[in-house]
Amino acid sequence: MPERVSAIPAWAWIVGAVLAIVIIFTGYRVVQTQHRLQTVQSELVSAKDEAAQANARLAEFEKRADSLKSELDKANAQRNELQAKLDQATTEMESAKSELEDKQSRLETVQSELESANQAADQSKTGAAQLQKQVTSLNSELEKANAQRKELQTKLDQASSDTERLKSELEQANAERKELQTELNRAKSEVQPAPGGNAQSEPGQ
Predict the structure, then answer these.
(1) φ, ψ at 79 (rounded to 5°)
(2) CA separation, residue 19 to residues 8, 10, 24, 49, 129 (Å)
(3) Rounded to whole angstroms, how far apart are CA atoms 49 and 11?
(4) What are the structural domains of the chain?
(5) For 67-95, what is each residue's pLDDT tens digit?
(6) Which of 174, 171, 152 is nearest to 61 (CA)?
(7) CA-to-CA distance for 97 and 103, rounded, in angstroms?
């Protein structure tokens, strides 16, 4: 029996050792490849979950954007209504201004008449009392016109402020929507199967 063992050529031992090494290395590579495949599959499932979450967030932000757009349309309608009222008030204010200028002209005339009336001794008291009443009435109308102008200016400032705020909220919502769309596109590109492979269905299909 020892003689038969010693009769095996040395190259046979070398070939056997090489085959054993190749088998061990191949087995290690198979285990490593399988482990890597499991990792990739886990990452694919995670990417699909993230894509589904991104779709849900995108839908939520789309609803929010639609709501903001509806609010903006409502605000624009209110602004247009306020603008119409403001135009009407401006027209009325211009009319009041014209009337005021006319009354100021009349006031100057009245003051001139007052000076003339003061020169007339027999009509001084009666004329002065009448002219004083006219001056008081004109001053009251002037104060009323100024108060109306300030009120209209306040309404205009408030309407402009509300419009700018709504525009800012809409721009922010659009920016968030674009950011989510970018994340979704990137997630879809990461989970897309390689050409020739077994394509797995996308979420929602």
Answers:
(1) -65, -40
(2) 16, 14, 9, 45, 132
(3) 56
(4) 46-187 (1.10.287)
(5) 888 888 888 888 888 888 888 878 887 88
(6) 174
(7) 9
